[in-house]
Amino acid sequence: MTRRPVLEFWFDFASTYAYLSAMRIEPLAEAAGVDVRYRPFLLGPIFQAQGWNTSPFNLYPAKGRYMWRDVAREAERRGLPFRRPDPFPQNGLAATRVALSGADKPWCGAFVRAVFHAEFGEGRSIEEPSAVAGLAGSVGLDPDQTMKAASAEPNKMRLRAITEEARTKGVFGAPTFFAEDGEMFWGDDRLERALAWAAGEDA
Amino acid sequence: MTRRPVLEFWFDFASTYAYLSAMRIEPLAEAAGVDVRYRPFLLGPIFQAQGWNTSPFNLYPAKGRYMWRDVAREAERRGLPFRRPDPFPQNGLAATRVALSGADKPWCGAFVRAVFHAEFGEGRSIEEPSAVAGLAGSVGLDPDQTMKAASAEPNKMRLRAITEEARTKGVFGAPTFFAEDGEMFWGDDRLERALAWAAGEDA
């Protein structure tokens, strides 16, 4: 058996368009014969480096108004629930640490979908560690062990390193997809093409 | 015969993604049974109002690098030529005035495509009035009469008014599409959905 090609899915839990991608990437990747590699990171430091202290959707109100309408419209078209969390953006640090601690584990996709569903499907807060522990429990993880592993120093350092890696690779938003040859695709609208590229159809 | 639905196509000649849309909107609209209404305007004043003195693709280098790669990749996939003009963004004032003066004329689409093709298909300058006059001539217009009508005071005022209308309607980038019920779609990636909405398929 030859190894299946891999597509990296870089995302921040505050991203509405990453929600749209997270809820469909696994079946699409399966159909394309591609494996998904979850790459959770924090957009905050990248935004701060370009002078933004919050989401560009808050800084630029016209763009923000459109984004909420566009995501609601797309979610409806796809049969996905959508509800805006308050505040936006949510601080996803605790959830991101858990996702990163499980990035190579079979449960990662289920946890990522549980977080995004709570945040944007139900408009619930994902900020408190207790909320994140509850979501970990909801996908069959041991909440205490999971939170402990997530907040262990090596995992915190790993999150700082992956966020720096995102910046170095030219990531400026989420979702961003990388094929193994380094080809980069930005945005939920490019997910199909990223998978086709990873599968070698466009190479 | 019932009147066909209309989709407004708001664009700035400096927009690479508006180039992608301009080169395909008419056959797609025809297939959808929708009429295209050309709405040329200037993004510059809208960008300036949010503190940008040039294209965001220049202000945010990581985003800019990705954009050039993405547009080149999309153009290749569609069999469209693509070449980056220097400088970018081009000053499209003269071309925009001509397009606006013909916004309700049968030649508007051909002129818009001629400008975009010169600018992004061949990487030529569209800044000088002589270049714009040449492009007008290339689609069968009288260059002198066209340039004179374009720079007449009522047409200049109309350009200021439509640019202000864009801002009022919440336009923050190009291309932007509006259906007759006011539904807004931003980006070449939303062209198909904008046409479906205008045609009543998603209403």
TrEMBL record, chains A, B:
It comes from the Bacteria. GO terms for biological process: glutathione metabolic process; naphthalene catabolic process. Gene3D superfamilies: Glutaredoxin. Keywords: Isomerase. InterPro entries: DSBA-like_thioredoxin_dom, GST_Kappa/NadH, HCCAis_GSTk, NahD-like, Thioredoxin-like_sf. Its EC number is 5.99.1.4. SUPFAM superfamilies: Thioredoxin-like (SSF52833). It catalyses: 2-hydroxychromene-2-carboxylate = (3E)-4-(2-hydroxyphenyl)-2-oxobut-3-enoate. It holds the Pfam family DSBA. CDD domains: DsbA_HCCA_Iso (cd03022). The active site is at residue 15. GO terms for molecular function: 2-hydroxychromene-2-carboxylate isomerase activity; glutathione peroxidase activity; glutathione transferase activity. Residues 7-193 form the DSBA-like thioredoxin domain. PANTHER family: GLUTATHIONE S-TRANSFERASE KAPPA, GLUTATHIONE S-TRANSFERASE KAPPA 1. Belongs to the GST superfamily. NadH family. This is 2-hydroxychromene-2-carboxylate isomerase.
